[in-house]
Amino acid sequence: MRKEYLIAGNWKMFKTIAESREFVRALAKEFSAAPGLEVVVFPPYTSLAATHGLEAKIKIGAQNMFFEEKGAFTGEISPLMLQELADCVLVGHSERREIFAESDEDVNKKLKTALKFNLPPVLCVGETLPEREAGKTLPKVRQQLEMALQGVAGANMEKITVAYEPIWAIGTGRNATPAQAQEVHHFIGQTLQEIAPGSRIKILYGGSVKPENSLELLSQEDISGVLVGGASLKVDQFSAIIQNALKLLNA
Ligand code: PEP
Question: How far is the CA of 143 from the centre of ligand 1 (A)?
Fold first, then answer.
């Protein structure tokens, strides 16, 4: 029997304010709050104010933030501003790393600043297809974790959630098999124990999660939830994934 699941939806650059509000209202009608179930959606910045606090059982996260508190950084949003609008923040999503050239150093700065402002970060890590094919998945993930977590005080570690998102599985329709995901999740769990012994840190799987594959993925021992992209944009699909988590919680 599982005690807790975090089901998260990354909307990327989709949904207007009105669409975001409508979605959150509609999703809330589809499931009952349950002990151990946590549901978060990550709308674009423009929809944060309109969705934050709209439905008590749906938390709202930001998809990104800058690592400075304030200053001459045109177009950026700081954790100080997000504090009032979001319950948590994604850090180091592969689209930020690849399209916007975010380095491991940037990710480390963002993670530490998010913690400083009491904004629990969801840290994304994952390998490319060539790295997987070359057998480099585990060293890559370990390196990303070590660099991102450098200088993070032990007491803060449990405020962090890690999302394992193999880049070859994001938006491709090709998910990691439950066994592949479990292997990496187990490794991440062990690595986190080395970095912060005794800490309990949630590890989400992300990469083409859909209602059809979510039950088996969520059943894996070291998978504590999912970070869903495409399928989180449709109420019926996202709520079907939530229902699968509820089934496992009630099993
Ligand atoms: C994501 O954007 O984090 C993601 C996992 O996307 P998708 O579910 O569409 O692969």
Answer: 22
The closest-lying atom of ligand 1 relative to the alpha carbon of residue 163 is 3
pLDDT in tens, 81-124: 999 999 999 999 999 999 999 999 999 999 999 999 999 999 99
> What does residue 39 show for φ and ψ, rounded to 5 degrees?
-120, 130
Range of the domain at 21: 5-250
Full-prediction pTM beyond 0.85? Answer: yes
- Residues acting as catalytic residues: 93, 165
**CA of 229 relative to ligand 1 center, distance in Å:** 3
SS3 state of residue 207: coil
* Helix pair angle (137-148, 104-116), 10° resolution: 50
CATH number where 32 lies: 3.20.20.70
CA-based nearest residue to 28, from 73, 64, 59, 61: 59
What residue owns the CA closest to ligand 1's atom 4? Answer: 229
Any residues with Cβ below 6 Å from ligand 1, and which? 10, 12, 165, 170-171, 206-209, 227-230
Mutate-to-test residue for ligand 1 from 6, 10, 94, 127, highest number of ligand atoms within 8 A of CB: 10
How far away, in angstroms, is 212 Cα from ligand 1 center?
15
- Reported as a pLDDT band with limits 50, 70 and 90, residue 197 is very high
pLDDT band at 1 (very low <50, low <70, confident <90, very high): low
Closest CA to 117 of 84, 163, 154: 84
Our count of domains for the chain comes to 1
